[in-house]
Amino acid sequence: MTGLCFGQKELSKKPAKVVKIDSGKVEIRKIDTAEVSAYSKQRDFIYDDVPPESLSLWDRFWNWLWDLIGRAFRNKVSGSLIKYVLLGLVIVIVIFLVIKLVGLDYKVLTGQSKALDIPFEETLENIHEINFDEQLELALQSYNYRLAVRLLYLKTLKQLSDQKIISWLPDKTNRAYVSEIQDVQKREVFSDLTLQFEYIWYGEFFIDKNTFESVHQSFQQFNSSKV
Amino acid sequence: MFSQRTDLSQLNAAVEQIKEALGKVIVGQKDTIDLLIAGLLADGHLLMEGVPGVAKTLSAKLIAKCISAVFSRIQFTPDLMPSDVLGTAVFSPKTAEFQFRKGPIFGNIILVDEINRAPAKTQSALFEAMEERQITVDGHTYHLEEPFMVLATQNPIEQEGTYRLPEAQLDRFLFKIEVKYPTLEEEIEILTNQHQQRTENQLQEIAAVLSVEQIKTLRATIKALFVEPKLLAYAAQIVHETRNNKSLYLGASPRASLAIINAGKAIAAMAGRDFVTPDDIIKVATPVLVHRIMLSPEKEMEGLTPSDIVAQIIKKIEVPR
């Protein structure tokens, strides 16, 4: 009780509010009419009586195009035809997106096996398309024994591939083919032939007629041997 | 049938000796040892990556031990400064001049252990040394003695406390050799050797096989080996494909093509041939390219590795025959 009375007493002692009067000099600023007039003449500040914009050639082209499409749709025959074309286009886009998202190979649509596809942008030579006897004859006629050995080696690869002893693919190295041969004896002989081919072809070792005869014989023996 | 045009007998004997010496201590890791020797012969710097405990540092120390040359070891730590590697100018009260005190980079075989634990600032100290075989400090250029080879080890980037090496530095390494875990049989052999205290004795027994001069001669021999023009095109095609491959964000530089050919020559010489074959190129293509290419973010998220992409690229290009 005493505390409350004390509180009231304290409040009563609070001084009355004093109104302060700002006696400072007020400077009245006026708008410069010349400046306003200059602004009002600028194009950006003229908000009314805007002249209609002249259409550019590009805009006119689009207007013409949309008008053409609109008219085509209004026509019964061409309108339905365009509808079907657009529908077809949408279906193709949806299929394309699905294939892209799933990561499928496009070959599935054409029915081609993925395994048959040779993953090369540029295949230099297909051993199954070379006429070896003809090419070999030409090489020997021009005394190009190095090329002749190469043709003998490719011919051997073709034969091994035809006999299903190796699976021919352009990305495989000679040593990969060697390791593919299951028959130990055949593998050893082919390994030696490969070495001879590598020395002559990659190493550019000189080869004369006698050496070629010997190499030729080795290849013939290998190719004529039974699986 | 074909007599050798280049005498590789000294080289082959040295390779066999190094393999034998390393084989006494390191169990398995045949490919790692082959690439280490190829890198040494091809005058390249080598980066070895693997989880802790797969004998990366030991392999590097052993290969250095096989050569009687000045060997330095720098342990890369997060607080290492470039001057700790290169050297620094110290004031001499006697002459009242600053004198350059050479850092550990002045050696023949430099083992940089845990290279990816130092930040990029310190890594950049190696750039000039690795490429130009010289360093420049305070406007002075100091040439490094030949042979100069950096053998660096690192933990995979996913490991704690490691930094990604700058691309410019990675490009300066001839190979990134990924050191794998040993097989079960190899691990049993490691334990047996340790149990019988064989490893320690064999480590001390390893003597230098090659001198500095011999290394220089062997490197010159390898540089002169024959490469068929179609194989040069084959190597260039592989590298070129890395720049156009959609799975890659960054392709390999022409330095990679040079590295493939040089390393291919070393592999051919080790096989006793004085000419390169496509197999040699394929063998070195992966360790030459894996650290030089960067996967696109989506391929990285798919879990592919640079090795997978290199394998795909090799499969895409026809072997010249």
TrEMBL record, chain A:
Domain of life: Bacteria
Entry keyword set: Membrane, Transmembrane, Transmembrane helix
InterPro entries: TgpA-like_C
Xref: Pfam families: DUF4129
Residue ranges of domain Protein-glutamine gamma-glutamyltransferase-like C-terminal in the record: 152-217
Transmembrane segments: 81-103
Full protein name: Protein-glutamine gamma-glutamyltransferase-like C-terminal domain-containing protein
Classification of source organism: Bacteria, Pseudomonadati, Bacteroidota, Sphingobacteriia, Sphingobacteriales
From TrEMBL, chain B:
Keyword Transmembrane helix among record annotations: no
Nucleotide-binding listed as a keyword: yes
Originating species: Pedobacter rhizosphaerae
Ranges of residues in domain ATPase AAA-3: 45-175
UniProt-recorded Gene Ontology molecular function terms: ATP binding; ATP hydrolysis activity
Residues in ChlI/MoxR AAA lid domain copies: 241-313
Keywords: ATP-binding, Nucleotide-binding
InterPro entries, alphabetized: ATPase_AAA-3, CbbQ/NirQ/NorQ/GpvN, ChlI/MoxR_AAA_lid, P-loop_NTPase
Lineage of the species this protein comes from: Bacteria, Pseudomonadati, Bacteroidota, Sphingobacteriia, Sphingobacteriales
Coiled-coil annotated spans: none
Family: Belongs to the MoxR family.
SUPFAM superfamilies referenced in this protein's UniProt entry, alphabetically: P-loop containing nucleoside triphosphate hydrolases
Domain of life from the UniProt record: Bacteria
Protein name as annotated: MoxR-like ATPase
